[in-house]
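retry 2 of 3: previous attempt timed out while embedding magnesium ion. Reduced batch size to 1 and resubmitted. Inputs unchanged:
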Amino acid sequence: MGVLKQNVFLVGYMGVGKTTVARRLARDLGVAAIDVDAYLQRKHGRDANRLFKQRGEAGLRRAEAKALAECAALGPAVISCGEGIVALPENRELLKTQGFAVLLESSMEGSLSRIKSMRTRPLLAQGCDTQALWDERKPLYDEVAQAHVDVSNKGTAAAAAAIAGELKRRGIYVSD
Ligand SMILES: Nc1ncnc2c1ncn2[C@@H]1O[C@H](COP(=O)(O)OP(=O)(O)O)[C@@H](O)[C@H]1O
Ligand SMILES: O=C(O)C1=C[C@@H](OP(=O)(O)O)[C@@H](O)[C@H](O)C1
Ligand SMILES: [Mg+2]
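retry 2 succeeded.
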């Protein structure tokens, strides 16, 4: 095992595997994993879908921004973010300054095809234009990402291993 020197944020589109890969990566490295969505749900006693319905997207984003800052303060940890975390400039600033952001990359279609129920993602549930969302998010992911990992043809274990290799090469994870 070893030591994680700073937060590692996993960012990327819906369904690309941020939550699943973060869990696997943290387990492989023997470090903590925090999912911002799961944290938000525990904190508010309701999930992001319900927050979205009750407070609208802007309300969800405000709650998510606080949750992100709290998660970052709990680290160093592997922190999986919701796809829309990059929407707010303050979040992008945090991602750039309070850790190392890794962009998980796959095609939009490949990512969306993994999502079993549209109802689990508020923007999909309300029938958002997924291509327009992709076009809007892509430059923002590129702005914050310090590393890009192609997960399109990788299972969870291989995706986690590719990120672990990147973290070791850069001295962000140091083995004992
Ligand atoms: N590398 C992978 N290979 C195969 N299935 C995956 C992979 N990563 C995630 N999945 C599956 O895809 C779905 C979406 O993954 P999830 O981790 O929730 O993505 P995100 O958090 O980016 O929205 C889940 O059902 C998950 O089990
Ligand atoms: O638009 C967003 O920010 C959200 C994206 C989804 O997360 P994933 O990116 O993990 O799919 C969803 O779980 C969350 O409720 C809100
Ligand atoms: Mg997720």
